[in-house]
Sequence to fold (244 residues):
Amino acid sequence: MMFFCIINVWPCSYLIIMESRKILFLLIFIILSLVAFQIPVNRIIGSNQNFTCFELIAPLGGMFLGPLLGALSTLIVRGTNVFIARQPLDLLTIVRFLPMMLAAIYFGMRGKKMAIIFPFCIVLFLIHPIGRQAWLYPLIWLIPFVATLGKKRLILKSIGATFTAHAVGSVIFLYAFGLTPQIWLSLIPVVFIERGFFTIGIWLSYLTINTALDKLANIRIIHFLKPLANQNYLISSKFFKSFA
Fold:
C-alpha cells in the first residue's frame, strides 16, 4: 500500500518542483527583460520608437522556459512597459506584442515547424499594394527559412528568432503605416546590419545567461534551477572548438 502511495506522490512532487523552478526563473527573467527594455539600441526607421536590448534577450525565454512560457514572459514585459509608459492599449499596440512573442516561441521550439512563418510573411507582404512594389525586401526572409531547415545550431536558431521578429514586425508595420516602396527597398542593407547585430547578440546573451545560470545553480539554495541550464551551450573551449 505504501509503495503505491509513493508511486502516486513522486510524479506530483516532481511536477511541483519543475513548475516552481520555472515560475521563479520566469519572475527573474521578467525583471531582467524590463531592465533591458529601458536600454535603447537603435531607432526604428519610420517611427519614433527604438529597438532596445529587450530584442536581444526576449527570445531566450523560449529556450529556458519552453515556447509557451517564453511567449508569456514577453507578453508580460511588453504589457508592463505599456503600463509604465502610459501608452494607449489599442489594437495596434496589442498586435505589436506578436513579433517578440513569436521569436520566443521560435527559439524554444524543437523541430522545423516554425519555418512556415517566413513564406507566410512573404505572401502577406507581397499581396499588399506597396509591398508588391518592394518585392525584393521580403526575399530577405528566405535566409532564416533556409537556416531553420539546417542543422540544429544555436547560431542558426538565433538567426531564425531575430528574423521571426523582423518578418512579423515588418508585415505589421507595412499594414499599419505603409511607407513607400523606395523606403522599404532602401532598408535592405540596414536589415542585414541590424539583424546581424541581433543574431550575435541573442547568441552571446544565451551563452552568457545559460553559463551564469549553470554556475550560480551550484549554490545549494538555488541548485534546483540547474536543470534549466542547457549543458550543450556552456561557454567553454570545448564549445568553441565545435565550430572548427
Remarks:
- The beta strands are 40-43, 50-52.
